[in-house]
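Annotated sample (chain length 261).
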Amino acid sequence: MSAPFEPGERVLLVDDKGRRFLVRLQRGSIFHFHGGAVPHDLILDSDEGIVVHSTTGGSLLCLRPRMADFVLKMPRGAQVIYPKDVGAILVEADIAPGLRVLEAGTGSGALTLALCRSTGPDGRVVSYELREDFHRTAGTNLEMFFGKLPAWLELRLGDVREVAETGERFDRAILDMPEPWGILAEIRGALYAGGILCTYLPTTNQVQEAVLAMQGAGFIDVQTFEVLLRSWHVTARSVRPDHRMVAHTGFVSVARKGPPT
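Output written by the structure step:
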């Protein structure tokens, strides 16, 4: 059974047209939106699912945000990986509790927080980011989501090539960077035998170069796909696809580290 809303936690507010707002609750504060003003005190100490009304009659449904809600609403440095792609990466790269995962680059931290939730405290996530502003934004987002940075996560500011000098080994490597083919030797050296490599790229030209480079670097069972998401409008009178859909966002390529050649 869920507890009532408390000060400091985030609430997802949904208006009568389906618009969504992510708000941090504080005593005495007021949330202003196109439908009026809603005191936070109307939400605090109430159960999830309550509907509150603004001073001008606008209504808001109050829910605890899912990870997907947080990812789409959190502050961004780099473009986030959409939830539809995050889910596919977690499944196809077989991210599981207790695994050691190497990530580059961190970006805004959307995939990083999903990796942390999937590996759990018995696992380890090491995430490299070249840009200091992205590194800071990701750290802030992860702290907002978890309350504090998970003990099994290490955010590193720098080039993922440095992992070749640390002697660390990983079960999985997830690369969200424009030219992953340039670091495949270092990534292969950091993976255990049979370890899985996953890349996320926006264009077909990048995918082609990455896949050919993976095959040349001794990775096997290479597969590439994209995920298209179309929501549906369901009422008593009709069932039809929505007019808008989340189509192409990126290509996911998954491969395994093959035996020495």
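Annotation: Residues 36 and 56 are 5 Å apart (CA to CA).
Annotation: The first strand starts at residue 10 and ends at 15.
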